[in-house]
User: Fold these one by one.
Assistant:
Number 1:
Amino acid sequence: MAAAGAGGGAGDELTVLGAWASPFLVRVRLALHLKALEYEYVEVDLKDKSGLLLASNPVHKKVPVLLHGGKPVCESMLIVQYLDDAFPHCGPAFLPADPHDRAVARFWAAYIDDKLLSSWMGIFATTTGEEKAEAVERTLETLDALEGAFRECSGEKEWFGGDGVGYVDIALGGFVPAMNASEPTTGIKIVDPVRTPLLTAWKDKFCALDAAKTAMPPTERLIERGKKRQAELQLQAAAESTE
């Protein structure tokens, strides 16, 4: 599967190795679509990792991986930065030109991966109601901080990047499909229009982007996957309680 758009020489072939449900894959595909870059997508079975993946990312053995002319680039946000550097004349620039603004964007992108992801995953890793409630509150607190970050970074415009989708929009946008699937799967509303109205409006605009629509996996499929995982965790917790 490929995005429409700009071509290049023989050394500009782009291939993405990924797993369909990965939020990190969403980031890479979104960036490629915004840049209107053509690419080949290769689905990877993470339970039976291919030789190409192991050779391309021998350290972490994870997806996504971008192959540009056969040369690998790993880690989703490093790939986004690489696309900015390698294709400066294709589509928008994701990182701002001002050094301070660039540092701020990198800070909040790192915050998303460090704080939001870890607290959110804690919701699914817990077995007691009390632990889950604590993980939910930690997650909501990180979103409170991101609500403030949006107010600061957007300059009262539509995106973290101001007039257009930028680095932080891509970082957080990778998790939008999981946010959409969260409530029907777990009963937990990750983005609350009362608590975080700016992020709620941002998410709605993000979902309406053509580039996002083509980058995101089907919500129904994520819900089915999430319910299956929830059932497995419940069975595991029940088994542990009888040991």
Number 2:
Amino acid sequence: MTRAPRFTGVRWLVEALRPRSNPLRRRLDRVAASLTALFLVIAVFGVPGAWWLGTDVHARAETTAAAVAARGHWVQAQVATPPELRTSGSGPEVQAVTWWARAAWTGADGRPHAGDVQVDRRIQVGGPLRVWVSAAEQVASPPDSEAKMVTAAAGVAALALGGLLITCALLIVVTRAVASALAERAWQREWEIVEPRWNRSDH
């Protein structure tokens, strides 16, 4: 008696999906092959989907950066105080270590302004420093650079595509495992019926 089919390989997939496939193939073969093909198609279409997602994330980042740029500008400032160490969290829960200093500049209104900015710890008092400020001459976060936006968009796209591919691969493995288990059980039931008759015919 033929053993239960193995639900693996490209040859099995093609044979099971053919309109006039092997008559020994069961409905289970076609269902398992159809699900496997579906997951493969989803994985393939995930590539342009990830590209579209990355493009959309980049476009949104550009819109945000343009809005930030419209509300502020760069000024040429000077470091007014030595860099000061700051941490977030305490003890073993310290999450970040940054250096800050007081920067001073002359605003568009001609008046002096100052504010705390994040700096390199090696910077010297009196050194030049570019600072992004709002229309009110307050220190603010600058718009993201093109490199940062591209990196972020590529990261989102890669993460989404990787997750999709892993999910599809796991679903294919599960589909094959379940189909193989069901086929094996069906084979065992049929063998329990055929074996006694087979043994009697040998005597």
